[in-house]
Amino acid sequence: MSNREVVALSVGGVRFVTRASTLQQFPESRLARMLSDGDQEFKLLNGEFFVDRDGTLFSYIMDFLRTLQVSLPTDFSDYQRLQREAEFYELYPLADLLSQEHLLKPRLEILEVLFSLQETQAFFRIFGSCSTTVETLAEQVTVFTGQQSGQRWKSPFTSQKPLIPLPLERPSHHDMVFRCGTEYSAGDHFVARYVSIKPDNRKLINGTNVLGLLLDTLLKDGFRLISTRTVSSEEKIECYSFERMKRPPALTI
Length: 253
Hints:
2 domains, elongated, 8 helices, Potassium Channel Kv1.1, Chain A, single chain, nine-stranded antiparallel β-sheet, alpha+beta
């Protein structure tokens, strides 16, 4: 049996087909020895190996053998049962990883958007509990500036001068600040700031439109809006709070 290239297994009634080399990733494991030894737990029936274990949990074991990584769904909770299955198959590197349950569990991530609309300008401040998420969002947001003559801030851009991208303000690794709209410069000129949020290609100057696109981007990225509140009615500051369960990076052997 050890020279088989393709192996079929029935684990608790769930059928799996894989390469023998996949099962032999860890030569000391029972799955590797199954192909050559007469382990009583593994019955060979009609050319397939049968073992009376949990077939659903075995799918995660197969994923580990194929990738040498532990990557579990965000709603997974059977860490101890999966560790017990790994120990049964004598996959001790996997069992050791599963014993570090705190590294595998998804974490609740919080993100807040502060929005202030003042005359012809809109101000944004985004704070996130995960600095990586804020960094990724900062790479999606670009602010462009340029001069206009006698135009209101809600008007579309018509200047022939090229827009210049501006760096975002990053007070810390956990927040970012930017604004859009127009401000009076000199004579009949205005300085205009436009915001673009990837993958959308538009350059928006209206703060309400930018807010709508930003919130839609966060929702598409898996965040859930949990509250909206007015922080200051006098300064017209609103706060939008989001949360999501973030899967930790896969642990690799």
